[in-house]
Amino acid sequence: MEHIYLILLLFCKALSAEAQFNGYNCDANFHSRFPAERDISVYCGVQTITLKINFCPVLFSGYTDTDLALNGRHGDAHCRGFINNNTFPTVVIFSISLASLESCGNSLVVSTAQGPNAYGNLSLVQIGNISGYIDTPDPPTIISYLPGLLYKFSCSYPLEYLVNNTQLASSAAAISVKDSNGTFISTLNLLLYNDSSYIQQLSIPMAGLTLKTRVFAAVKATNLDRRWNVLMDYCYTTPSGNPNDDLRYDLFFSCEKDPQTTVFENGKSQMGRFAFEVFRFVKHKNQKMSTVFLHCVTKLCRADDCAMLMPICGSRRKRDISEGTESNTASGNAVLSAGPIITRIANLKAPVFQINTVTSALISGVIILGVMSVCFFIFSLTLLKGKSTPVSTLSGVRNPAFS
């Protein structure tokens, strides 16, 4: 009898759980609980922030998907998520556009701090933090037997890409907190152009560019929210594609720049522009061509704050090009690279002239004709001299018979 009662009890619990999760991909053995910190996933993208909430504990707590909304905006349909029942478990997805993130009450806070960049130079760096929460509505009564659900999230966008993945978990059973990091590095490109119009990209001939050819470079942001501008912090060149190469030549940093380098635009839009003259690395003296790779440490700054982040003259310490630098991976700074720019090196050896077969035959024929002409001329002179010689006079005793 006791066994029959136990079986009936388990069967009733199974029916209750089945009714609780009817139509959704949930497992009563795992999801018959209140929400926890692991029930929210945060994806910090370039254009959108995507939140995914495990819907099964929400159902167990007595709520539906329409009860979840961003920052308490339960009356605004645009601030609610949508069900995705094609996964296990079923999730509610919220998509937040960075271009209009304030529309549902999300917060953007930009903080500024001074610290060393990838190469030990002091620099001001901005960090953008976007945060908000998803909750359920409070009942209009004084008391409630349903737990209030609260999911907190944040996305940190270090604008010089100091990535530090962290996760904070709340101890409250019905409260979930998830912090994550994003990056805008995929939106940035370093491009080379032929002239100051910045329309046609640089075309390098097979023999390489001649020395002192002017090259126009630009760091461009694409598919990026208009609130951010591009600020080139430090641009330099190396003989290899490794941005951490010990041998480097600086084009500009802060107020110091190479005399042949001109900065046209920086921190004023989503495009930074400059130009420099092509040179060669001395280490390539025994090669026909010299390769030059261009690198730029780049920040993003909020348009209203870029002027504050512009360099202050005299803040950079001098260093030799052979000075060792810290690894960019360790520092977390983003470096954009372009190249190689191939430079033509002049060949100072005396030219060697090669004569083909036809030319050689012609020259030989001319020489032979010349020799024959000289011989014929000498022979002609000899004949002429022989005809002009007078007849010799006979001498002897006169014969008397002819007298």
From TrEMBL:
Name under which the protein is recorded: Zona pellucida-like domain-containing protein 1
All residue ranges annotated as the ZP domain in the record: 43-320
InterPro entries: ZP-C, ZP-C_dom, ZP-N, ZP_dom
Keyword vocabulary terms for this entry: Cytoplasmic vesicle, Disulfide bond, Extracellular matrix, Membrane, Secreted, Signal, Transmembrane, Transmembrane helix
Membrane topology category: Single-pass type I membrane protein
Organism of derivation: Seriola lalandi dorsalis
Signal peptide extent: 1-19
Protein role: Glycoprotein which is a component of the gelatinous extracellular matrix in the cupulae of the vestibular organ.
GO cellular component, one term: cytoplasmic vesicle membrane
Location within or outside the cell: Cytoplasmic vesicle membrane; Secreted, Extracellular space, Extracellular matrix
Highest taxon, organism lineage: Eukaryota
TM segment ranges: 361-384
